[in-house]
Amino acid sequence: MSQLTILRGYRDPTKNDLLADYFRLPISSEPLSELAATFGVHGTGQVFSGNLYLFKSFLCFQSYDKRSCVTNIPLYSIRRVERLSTINQPGTLALSLILWHGLKLVVQLNTLKPTSDEFCNHLKHSLREQLSQMKHVKAFAKGCYSERLVGEEINDNDNDDLDHKDNDNDNDNDKTYHHGLGVQFKYPGDPKKLREKTKLRLWKEYFRLHGRNITLVRYPQFIRLVQVGLPSRLRGEMWEILSGSIYDRFANPGEYQRILELHDGQSSMATDEIEKDLNRSLPEYGAYQDPAGIAALRRVLTAYSWRNQELGYCQAMNILVAALLIYMSEEQAFWFLDKICTRILPGYYSASMYGTLLDQKVFEHLVQRTMPSLHEHFVESDIQLSVSSLPWFLSLYINSMPLVFAFRIIDCFVAFGPRVLFQVGLAALKVNYAKLIDATDDGMVLNIFRDYFASLEEPVQPNSTDPKVLNITNFSELLVVAFREFSVITDDTIIEERRRFRAGIVKSIELFSKRSAIRNLKDQARFGPDGVNKIFDHFFYALCKTPTPLAALPPSTPSKLRENEELSDRTETVIDLATFRVFLSDIATWARDEKIINNGFQERIVRSVPENEIYRKLFKSWDYTGRDALGLQDLVRGLDSVMFNGLLDNIEWFFNLHDSDNDGYLTKDELVQLSESLLFIFRAEPGDAYLGAVSKFMTNAFEYADSLIEQPQAVKETNKNDEPSQKDPLSATEVSDNCVPGSPQVSNHDPYINLATFRMVCLADELLEAFFDTDLRQSFKFEDVPQSAIDQPLIDLSTLDDIGIGSTGLVGNILGGIFSKDNKEILNGIADEIGKSIGKHQVIYRPSFGRVNSEVEIEEKRRPAPEEKDSSIVSGVANLLSSTPSWFSRSRSDIGQAEEQEMEEKTRKPEETSLLSQGDQNNGESHLASIKAAQEALANRQAFAIDQREDDDEDFDESLNDDEEAGGEFAIGSDEDDDMIDEVDAIELDDQHAIVAEEAEKILNAPVDKDQRI
Amino acid sequence: MSESQKPVQVKLVLLGEAAVGKSSVVLRFVQNDFQEYKEPTIGAAFLTQKCRLEDKVIKFEIWDTAGQERFRSLAPMYYRNALSAVVVYDITSSSSFEKAKSWVKELQRQASPNVIIALVGNKLDLVEGSQEEEEEERDDATATPNQDQSRAISRDEAQAYAEESNLLFFETSAKTGEGVVEVFTEIAKKIPLEQIVNSTKSRAQDQTQQNNVNLNANNGQSKQVGDNCAC
User: Whole-model pTM?
Assistant: First the structure.
């Protein structure tokens, strides 16, 4: 539940992945070379035909039946390669490979010469690359018990048990090999009964002929040797070889120790959980009643929880690792665990446990396929098989069977793969078929299996007098049924079945997560269940689009603090700033750029998230728990603080947002930042009204603040007498800031303006008042999250920038029906090209508020006779305009249109196009310039003069005219259409915020469009 | 009469944070036993115990679930059709109490409508100095070494919460056995036994209507899950 979107990243394994899994290679990569070959180990007399694969660091062979002969030879274990003369079959190439243990492999390449030559070249090259690894082989091999086994004599007549013998050897100063706790605490089971000695002798022979540890070749005898159970002393090493984790250990010497040292003394949620279970892991085994055993268990589990922090720790891993440590050293167990968790049983122990759930579904389906009537009975009696079977899989039967038998199943599991878990499970059902078909509820089924697994040691026919028959135990029957009757269950079956059910499982986990996340909310604020649901959808959608990497999140709090923390904080999914920006842009109209692109065929809306400081400010202010990350609860509270309040509360909210030290005052810097935020929020509004409002706001704010600092008493009085909205200092004499007599010198970082003053200044402007009163609140909307994102968890959401609203137009609809989402971008690109070539392509920014059009009338009313146009604020605004950041540039280009609309409402020229200036495209620089300009404007403003009132609109009007003139050079006639389009191209490609308005009315109508669409 | 009477089956599920002593409470109730080191439950364990209430015999079918958070998505599989639930927390751990509250919330929304819920604060032996004071070692497998062994959740606080949420409330010690049996007998008293006997026949149908997010949830069922999302 903690990281919801990990599931999204899960892909079906590729062919190469499957191949790498089959050969247990450390990493999946494409084979350098793949060819038909005949393979044999010198001295065995057996030769197999099959496929030979050369990987970057492994040479692998697989016989055609996929069983008889399998080998994966690390290239660093090859000492020598010779080309053999092939007298019998001239033209074919044969190689002899001498391995580390002196083993000689003969490989005949059954291909044409060019292919085999290419193979040889690759091999030569790869061998050379592995040279550096070769020198480590000797020391590494020394740590393997198999080396010792081959070297020592096993005395058949020696009836002493092996432990005794081993103790002698330990005295011989040979404790260098990796071994488990079993050496000291004894291995489970009776060595005589398990025929340990015979097994060891057989293995010793096998090793001599077929290689050992890193050079082991699997021949048909191998399968039988594994199926009768591995000898205890060899078991750990064999598990390591068969799972392939030995190559990881070889490749990462010292890594285990390094992790332990790095995290020494640290704690996490996982380590706390581990601590709780240490005494509860195979508690009946001697080593785990001993501090040394517990300590080893702790080290392996915690080291792995640090290595794989996403996974951390899952109950059942304690049991698995406790079992491993009986046969393996800590380092061996560590790498084996890694292999299990990441490659052999991915998702079994992960936070969502999707692998476990998936395999339960697969298992159930296999029961349905192989024992349909039993399955039907389960369905009819409402028996959930997974109630019984889930623990089998999760603890690899260790928790369900007596240890000796569970270990034999693990022997087969590591040798033959996950299919073994299914085969054994199916066999357990088959054997108990008669009882199960009479069971009427989950409890009965559970008891049937419990009794059965407890009786595995008993003979199948206890009444028989034949000792051979008596020797056949329930367990041997189980294995025979598993591997004979269910031999149809292959690796491919499992892969296929997993693929079939994956999407469904992911979806149900996600639904569950959603339910829990919402349930865990302490406070739904004013949203109610529906609203919270919608917030979650957006939260999840944002996470899918821009996942928050685990590394980006702050480290978990120390455990002492955690004890008192709220439950929801412990497992909550949280997002970082990057994800938050996406989240906000989906909800708030002003937090995204929306380009309406019309290419003549279709109209579509493309969304993107611009850069601005305001996202960080919101992120910080909503981070109620101060952990530098936001959870669902934070978002609910945060949105609540802005979506339901009225005018005054919103003004205060906005003020506090910019008051970074919460001292109730904004500094000059903060005030400038605040106005910048306003400019950003209004960047998409057509016309100049908002720009004017912000400029006026800034001027007024500085006036008031200065005067308050200057003469606190006087201003208070003035305020009482004066209607704040009437302030207009524009026509006052122009006096530079520095020249004001007694002007206070306030540093940019000192407290400067308080909330009361700020509120007054905001209320002085109708647009700002409207913004804080309703527009801000209404700019937050919960649109429906695209269903595709929720329904198809496995699609790549990163391409879904075009969120699929309004692909309209006849051709658009038709094409939309034909093309899938994946093709859509390409399609759009093509359509745009065509649109451009016929001059129909256009891009329009959609306004965030759409108030300006309705405001036009008001402005008209307020407009006095045009006179007295020149004033400092005008020049200030002009400055601002000439260097507004690019995100603001649209207002500027729209200015012309707004003007036009006022002048001649009816006669619009479709050809007229305005375009932003080139300079505006440079986002960063012009951004800085705007700040400078704003400050300049402030510096040049006239002195505070509260009585001088005059409507400012005309001044902006003037500035507009100026601007239009100035901007004239950017207007592009129809002759230059092509150039213009190219330019638009470039702008679009650079993801700059560009606009081309071919028809002024498009923009004017845009807000209407918006309303219709949303 | 009573001897020959067919016992009434009552499904009971135990929920709660990892290592609060769910399995130990059950073990005490079913076998009157206590184990210092009890293996964590993987998935769920199943036990039954009969008990007599007046003239009726009740057979408790007890589902003891895994406590770790990541096993939580499996829980609906176990608590579906449960007539009663025992939500356990550790009185020395406030986080386990929070988790218990969250389980109660989930049960009240997702489990059978009239499920009887008992809130149980376990490990009373850790804070009761009056009772045979054997401080020699940590008495429970599950206690973390550094944990302060004093009470973290007062009886009053839990009692108030239980009343507010309409839960039965007990404090127990699985180790000493204090209060354990009472939990089950009080639950038995509250269960409308007559109804169960009458409705046993139709039980199968009811069961299919339970929603669950577990493995068996096919697409049809997940629709129902969606409806319940508005928690």
Answer: 0.72
